[in-house]
Amino acid sequence: MIIILIGYMGTGKSTLGKELATALSYDFLDLDNYISKREKNSISEIFKTKGEIYFRKKETQYLNDVINTSGNLVLAIGGGTPCYGNNMELLKGNSNLISFYLKLSIPLLVKRLFLEREKRPLISHLNSEEALLEFIGKHLFERNPYYSQAQFTLNTDNKTKQEILEDILVHLI
Ligand code: S3P
Questions:
Q1: How far is CA 74 from CA 69, 71, 152, 154, in A?
Q2: Residues in the chain with pLDDT values less than 70
Q3: CB-CB contact of 146 with 88 (8 Å)
Q4: pLDDT at position 70
Q5: CA-to-CA distance for 13 and 80, rounded, in angstroms?
Q6: Residue having the nearest C-alpha atom to atom 4 of ligand 1
Q7: What local confidence, expressed as pLDDT, does residue 69 receive?
Q8: Cα–Cα distance between 53 and 50 in angstroms, integer?
């Protein structure tokens, strides 16, 4: 069984994923970390030196590798992963897989992402909270059709990690 956590940057996919994996005694994998290791480069450097199109090709290739491995796994994918190539189709075509969209409102995303935007290549150039708010608003409008294809959507605004984990676990019983 593979549990996939989907969501925009800053929705806590990796933090929650690790805790979920521990609770279930599953392995945990963060797709960005996997890409970084395999490419021997940070995500920011890959964007800078090779460009986003290269990154997106590698993202699809490694996603495919990872979801075709056996064993129990919690997989946190990147915020853009569901929205490129045939990635969402790949996920939906795998019957051993269950997907959760961790949904967070735009003001909370701005609050979380503004101070850590440096390490995120898509938003590192945005210098005010207003600019970030506008960017995320448009970006989510484009991405929602992909995110909403997850099997379950969880509203995570003002929820503790424990509450979100419980929301996920309920669907696994
Ligand atoms: C991206 C999200 C990032 C990373 C890359 C692009 C996106 O992952 O894959 O910077 O397109 O939203 P996180 O969502 O884990 O930050």
A1: 12, 10, 15, 16
A2: none
A3: yes
A4: 82
A5: 13
A6: 78
A7: 84
A8: 8
| 3-state SS class at 94 | coil
Determine contact, residues 136/106, Cβ cutoff 8 Å: yes
Q: Which two tokens stand for residue 36?
A: 């970084």
Adjacency order of strands within the sheet including 97-103: 27-30, 73-76, 2-6, 97-103, 152-155
**CA of 11, closest atom in ligand 1:** 14
- pTM (2 decimals)? 0.97
Specify the DSSP element, H or E, that contains 172.
helix 161-172
Which residues lie with the beta carbon below 6 Å from any ligand 1 atom? 9, 13, 32, 43, 78-80, 120-122
Q: Per residue in 76-100, pLDDT tens?
A: 999 999 999 999 999 999 999 999 9
Cα separation of 154 and 73, whole Å?
Answer: 20
Identify the burial level of 91 via C-beta atoms within 10 angstroms of its C-beta, where 0-12 means exposed, 13-18 middle and 19 or more buried: buried
Residue 76 Cα: closest atom of ligand 1: 15
